[in-house]
Amino acid sequence: MEAAGPRSRDVRGRVASPPGSRAEKSPMESRKVYMDYNATTPLDPEVIQAMTEAMWEAWGNPSSPYPAGSKADGHSFLSPVASGRKAKEIINVARENLAKMIGGKPEDVIFTSGGTESNNLVIHSVVKHFHKIHTAKGDTAEHPSPVVAALPHVITCTVEHDSIRLPLEHLVEEREAEVTFVPVSKVSGQAEAEDILAAVRPATCLVTVMLANNETGVVMPVSEISRRVRALNQQRAVRGLPEVLVHTDAAQALGKRHVDVRDLDVDFLTIVGHKFYGPRIGALYIRGLGKLTPLYPMLFGGGQEWNFRPGTENTPMIAGLGKAAELVAENGEAYEAHMRDVRDYLEERLAAEFGKRIHLNSQFPGSERLPNTCNVSIRGPQLRGCSVLAQCRRLLASVGAACHSDHGDRPSPVLLSCGIPFDVARNAIRLSVGRSTTRAEVDLVVEDLKQAVARLQGQA
């Protein structure tokens, strides 16, 4: 589900209201309010500009070895040598901007097609590394590995994105790995560090836990998990056991809260552009790429991205991703403060309108959550989330993750895993606000929900 369209900026550089907003004095009946920013975000106007300029000025191949002075005779656009160099420069700057956004080093960032590829690349790399080090060489090594006969073991949690869960399940089916899906706490909604560490086995080689959940917004204790895994690795090294690497999928967190790989102390971090007003490509951070942390390519070709992710670079998309990262690095605190203010106002208005009938599925005592996410259920037998949304005339939202849109009326597995009762979970609606969402739009949404509920209950 996409936003209404490109947005302009006011004199202070803020995203202005979309077409059809109150600012344009359009009829209220025709106004739509988008609150599905956890599914995808529109391209920021500055991102569109960066991509457009790259298409015009950097169409050359960034790897082309043209000699100095080469020209494109008869054309008004830049010569191949100029545009190729421009493309290379854009890619380098984008990499620097991504590194700055997450507190990493540019040489530890590679570009990918998106979050799914980044997540798969991590999983398959770590599993392959285990087989290479502890299986292939185990029988012939002077000191055989104590896990030579074991399958690599991965630990994750029950609320991960499908791009984590499905490749892991596939590896289990193919008998290439073993996986433990640790349940999240029904008290905190988090994958608790204690439970993650309790699942570690001698053959454990990877822990992958998302930084923030896409449905509840709950922030996972990744820093604590990493700290405890680091301490455990010191003990494992003495016993000749595999190092346990830590990965976090930061797709939902970036652009909404501060993310720093130094604080998180992770080996891998997944970046997804379309979650923070960038294009639909991604990147992967690897701590000490190829030196401290292993990475094995899934593709083989022209040697781009240091041979870890070959293929001619998509310069315009990379330009847009770099600009989106730059905006987050410069304005992240302001974005976060605005979204929290609007989200809190949304929850206040919902509570005032529906009273005790409201259940906030994303509030867990003591747990931090994303500043833009409100997962809410309105109690009532006729008020399933999909039914309420179908009755709404202005609100554009979802009942959960876009990748689970084929679940129909079934409650979200994520909410059920978090201990939300079945009859409450099936009524859930995920409302996620964005950088330009206003309190006036919140008022429209609450009124829209009120009328939708009244229609479903035959009170209209």
Question: Would you give an account of this structure?
Answer:
The protein has 460 residues and is α/β, with parallel strands linked by helices. Helix content is 37%, strand content 11%. It contains twelve helices and twelve strands. The protein has helices at residues 45-57, 80-102, 115-135, 162-173, 193-198, 222-238, 261-264, 315-354, 385-391, 413-417, 422-425, 439-456, and strands at residues 33-34, 109-112, 153-157, 178-182, 204-208, 245-249, 268-272, 282-286, 358-360, 373-378, 395-396, 428-432. A seven-stranded mixed sheet has the order 2-8-7-6-5-3-4, sandwiched between helices. A three-stranded antiparallel sheet has the order 9-10-12. Helix 2 (80-102) packs parallel to helix 8 (315-354), helix 8 (315-354) packs across helix 12 (439-456) and helix 9 (385-391) crosses helix 12 (439-456). The radius of gyration is 24 Å and the shape is globular. It starts with 32 loop residues before the first strand and ends with a helix. 47% of the residues are buried. Residues 1-26 and 68-76 have low confidence and may be disordered.
